[in-house]
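Researcher: Let's walk through a ligand-bound prediction step by step. First, I give you the protein sequence. Second, the SMILES string for S-adenosylmethionine. Third, you return the three-dimensional complex as C-alpha cells. Ready?
Model: Ready.
Researcher: Here are steps one and two:
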Amino acid sequence: MSDQPRRPRKPGKPYRRPEKDPVRLLAFEALRAVDERDAYANLVLPPLLRTAREGGDFDARDAALATELVYGTLRRQGTYDAVVAACVDRPLREVDPPVLDVLGLGAHQLLGTRIPTHAAVSASVELARVVLGDGRAKFVNAVLRKVAQHDLDGWLERVAPPYDEDPEDHLAVVHSHPRWVVSALWDSLGGGRAGIEELLRADNERPEVTLVARPGRATTGELLDEEAALPGRWSPYAVRLSEGGEPGVIPAVADGRAGVQDEGSQLVALALANAPLDGPDRLWLDGCAGPGGKAALLAALAAERGAALLASEKQPHRAKLVAKVLAGNPGPYQVVAADGTRPPWRAGTFDRVLVDVPCTGLGALRRRPEARWRRRPGDLEGFAPLQRGLLRTALESVRVGGVVGYATCSPHLAETRAVVADLLKQFPDVELLDARPLLPGVPELGEGPDVQLWPHVHGTDAMYLALIRRTG
Ligand SMILES: C[S@@+](CC[C@H](N)C(=O)[O-])C[C@H]1O[C@@H](n2cnc3c(N)ncnc32)[C@H](O)[C@@H]1O
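Model: Step three, the predicted complex:
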C-alpha cells in the first residue's frame, strides 16, 4: 500500500494507467527476491526468465537486458548507493528497500548502460508507478533527474574519497566492493594500485561460460562444434562459450558427459590428479564433493587410470546432486553423505584426497553478484574451525606417500595460507608440494609452493590450491 496521502486528482488531468514494462518488472522482481528473501540472483533469475519467455511476451533480447539490469545493479550497488545517497536528503537506511531497488535499477540504466537518459528515467518512473504508486514515483523521478546530471566518471569524482587520502575507500566506491573485501583481496594479491584495480574491475565483468569435457565421456572437439565456442585457456578439457548462451541445451551437457565448470576448478582437480605419488594410485577421495563439479572431473580422470573415487558430502541433498553428476562415469565410484570431520572411513585409506572446503567465496564474485554485500568479516571466524577440521581429517585419511589438495574459491589469506600453516604445525610428517609445475603453461602462479589463480590474470575464479604430501 502506498504511504502517500491520498489527494484529489487535479481537474483536467485524466488518470493514466501506468504502462507495464515486462523487462524492468522482472528485473525489479528479481532484485526484491535477492533483497527480501536472501535469494541468489543466479538461481532466482532463470525460472523468472523461463516463465516470461513461455508467456510469450519476452524474447532473447529482453532476457539479455533483464539479466544485465539485475546483475549490473547488484554488482554496482556500492557505487550506485553512494550516488543515490548524494541525491537524497535523508540517510539511505530511511528509504524503503523497494524504492532503493527501483533507484538502483534506474542508476544502473543511467550510469552503467547505453540506454538514453530520457528512456532510463521515464522507464524507471513508470516502473515506480506500477510497483510503488504515484507518490513514490515522483520521488524516484526527482532523484533520478539528479543522478542524470553527471555520467559515472563525473559522479565518482564527486562521491569517492581521493585515492591519496584513503586508497581502500576510494577503490571500494569506484569499483563497488565493500571496503573490507578490497582490503582482504589486496592483502592476498599484494603489489600496488594497478593490480588491485584490475582485479576489482574483473570482479565486475560478466564471466565467460566455460565447459568441461569430462575425459572418457566427451571430447573438446565435440563441444567446439558449438557456435562461438573457443578452446580453454589452460585446461585441456575446457571449452569457452564466448557468447554465453544456454549450455543446458548442448547434448553432451544435457546428458552429463560434459558440464559447466570454471577453468580454475578444472585446474584444481588436474593438479591434484597429476601430483607425483609414491606407491599405488588406486583410491581417491573428494571429501567436500557437493554439488559435484570437481568430483565428476576427478572420477573421470581416476577412471582413465583404473582408480576409483569416493565422493563424500555432508548435506544429503547435495550428495544426491553429486550422484547425479557422477552417473555414467566410466570407472568405479561411490557417493556417500558423511561429515568429513567425523568420517566413516579408516585413516590412511586414500592415495589422493581433495578437500574443497566451504568458504566465503570471495574468489567467485563475478558469478554471484550479491555475494559481496552479504558476506561479513565475521563469516571468516565461522568457517575457520570447519576448514581446519576438514583439512585435518583429509591429512589423516591419506596414506603415507599420498597427497591432499586443500582448495578454496576464496583468496582470503585467513582461509588459504593461514589454514594450511596451522595444520602443517600440527602434522610434523607432511610436506608442501610445489603445485606450480603441475599446471604447465599457466603463468603468474605466485611464489609457490601453493597456487593462487586470479580473475584478472587467468580469467578464472580466484581458486586457491595447496598440495600436501604425507611423508611419515
Ligand atoms: C565449496 S563446496 C564444494 C564444491 C565441490 N567441490 C564442487 O566442485 O562442486 C563445499 C561443500 O562442502 C560441504 N560441506 C560442508 N561441511 C561439510 C562437512 N563437515 N563434511 C563434508 N562436506 C561438508 C558443503 O555442503 C559444500 O557442498
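Researcher: And what stands out?
Model: The chain has 20 helices and twelve strands. The chain has a mean pLDDT of 95.
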